[in-house]
Amino acid sequence: MTSTAANELKLVYDFAEGSREMRDLLGGKGANVAEMTRVLGANRVPAGFTITTEACVAYLRAGGAMPDGLDQQVASALATLEERAGKRLGDPADPLLVSVRSGARESMPGMLDTVLNLGLGDESVQGLARVTGDERFAWDSYRRFAQMFGNVCHGIAGERYEELIADAKRAAGVSEDTGLSAADLQALTEQFKLLFASETGTPFPQDPGAQLAAAIGAVFDSWRGERAVHYRRLNGIPDESLSALSDLDLWIVDALRPVPHPSHFSLPETLAWIERLKPKRAVLTNMHIDLDYGALKAELPPYIEPAYDGMILPF
């Protein structure tokens, strides 16, 4: 395994490098699979790697630019994965296929995007058919990847794909997707590729490296997608909170009063967020007269303190 340079921020972790204690850095899914690898052994858990939440935060803050070093670290981690699997991503003869999955610190089931079967193309689908001995399976995998890639990575409406699927079933005289033959699915995949070219102005990508880069960016972008934003609002999680407010040296935060307020954090809510985000130091501000300074200071742990008039904080 290739290590990162001494002065380079580590943005990619092999499954064998983490543990469940690294949830803030690896996300819930990444931390859990790392823990499985640690407990069961790498030979009993499929290999893979996790891109850190810090990489996602940097990407979002930079307006969609990948952080320095991420491409190289992903390439190194992929090379390690290929060596362990004995296959290469998108190999025309026997392709390695990967999934690009999301995993926030806090569970957000179904809210973030995923891309499966990545690495398939016009040549590698033939290799998959030969290796598995199942042509229908290979073309069904490719058409699913083409649909997911177009929808997730390029925003092509899912309804456009569903219309083409419905047309294919009518033409084949079947009512279920499972009734489509390998030839039907091959023709459907070609229709998906034509739709992609029409909507994006470019051919469907055959380079697995380009597919992977696009999928990583799309999964990062899904943090700000409509579903994810709505979910966080319904669950009281501000959009930037759990990803952007990480590794804080100092957090100055509202704590108005002991009971809930319609537009401000109450003291219990603030303390719960501090426990979740774990800043090195937290200062409570905008406190109502109901909160007694001396009593509150005596009750709080040393790294949490109420603000006072004239307080000077180093930055």
Give the overall average pLDDT: 88
Total of DSSP H or I helical runs spanning 4+ residues:
12
Total strands: the figure is: 9
Question: What is the 3D shape?
Answer: elongated
Low-confidence stretches: none
Class per helix and strand makeup: mainly alpha
Order of helices and strands: EHEHHEEEEHHHHHHHEHEHE
Residue share in helices? 40-55%
Largest sheet: number of strands, sense, barrel closure = 3 strands, parallel
Question: What's the end-to-end separation, in Å?
Answer: 38 Å
What is the C-alpha radius of gyration, as a whole number of Å? 24 Å
Q: Beta fraction of the residues?
A: 5-15%
Cross-sheet strand order for the largest sheet = 7-8-9
Task: Explain what this protein looks like in three dimensions.
This protein is mostly helical and 315 residues long. It has a domain at 248-306. 48% of the residues lie in helices and 9% in strands. The chain has helices spanning 23-40, 53-61, 70-85, 124-132, 135-154, 158-172, 182-200, 208-221, 226-234, 241-244, 267-277, 293-299, and strands at residues 12-14, 49-51, 88-89, 95-96, 98-100, 115-118, 251-254, 282-285, 304-306. A 3-stranded parallel beta sheet has the order 7-8-9. Helix 12 links the parallel strand 8 and strand 9 (304-306).
Describe the structure using short key phrases.
mainly alpha, 315 residues, 12 helices, 3-stranded parallel sheet, two-stranded antiparallel sheet, 9% strand, 9 strands
